[in-house]
Design goal:
By secondary structure, the protein is of the alpha+beta class. Helix content is 37%, strand content 22%.
């Protein structure tokens, strides 16, 4: 990507009289900033013309806290689940503009904490800045296709061969998924990547096996399809 770092981690220079708490990278005002991983927006701050100005704090599922500073526009809310690539807002830093904070020019200030202690956030830079715009309609179309397929499979699981899946029903589901896609995609990604569905899957499997022991036949397909769907989504979609 070739991002230009203007102040490295722990750097001391004319601007930073004490070791720098993060990494500064020069990006034009209005550059999209995205989450570096799955997690939740922990808090938003606005220090005016002080410190990092507009800031977004994201808590990743591994406990790391990533801080984005000097945003000209914030596009998330506190408590919002995010996955890798979720847009958080737009970069800023131009002195005198809203959200710039204490800054000498347009840039992103990125810092990270693990266990409450500062760490070098350089590893996250490439994932934090979106330098190319996604193809229009791409993510929504992918969402629609994925949820449409899920819908069809679930209908087959529940109804078996008796369930007639018509092209119209599939098209309607895809259209609805495209319309509601972005929010559903993010929330599903948060649940899968965060491991929040692991325990329900195991409990459901145990219950189905228990029912099989008592002579029930129907749990077999739920066990098989449940595991296939789970690992297909966990391994290839929500990674």
């Amino acid at each position: 990507m070739g991002l230009k770092i203007t102040a490295g981690y722990q750097a001391v220079d004319n601007v930073h009289k004490v070791p720098h708490s993060g990494v500064d990278v020069a990006v034009p005002t209005g550059t999209p900033l995205v989450s570096v991983g799955t997690g939740v927006v922990e808090k938003l701050v606005n220090y005016g013309d002080k410190n990092i100005g507009n800031g977004v704090f994201v808590r990743l599922i591994d406990g790391t806290q990533v801080v984005y500073g000097h945003l000209s526009k914030v596009e998330v809310v506190t408590g919002q689940p995010v996955i890798k690539g979720t847009k958080l807002g737009l970069s800023g830093g131009q002195p005198g503009t809203p959200g710039a904070g204490h800054s000498t020019g347009p840039h992103l200030h990125l810092q990270a904490y693990q266990g409450g202690k500062l760490i070098d956030p350089t590893r996250y830079l490439e994932s934090a800045v979106q330098t190319s715009q996604p193809t229009a309609g791409g993510p929504d179309l992918l969402t629609g296709a994925a949820i449409g397929v899920l819908f069809v499979v679930l209908m087959l699981i529940v109804g078996g061969k008796k369930m007639i899946v018509t092209p119209v029903s599939v098209i309607v589901m895809v259209v609805l998924a495209v319309f509601f896609g972005p929010a559903i995609w993010t929330k599903l990604g948060f649940l899968f990547a965060g491991g929040y569905l692991d325990v329900p899957l195991m409990v459901g499997t145990i219950i189905c096996i228990w029912l099989l022991q008592f002579g029930a036949k129907w749990p077999k397909k739920y066990i098989v399809w449940g595991w296939l769907l789970f690992w297909a989504l966990r391994g290839f979609v929500f990674v």
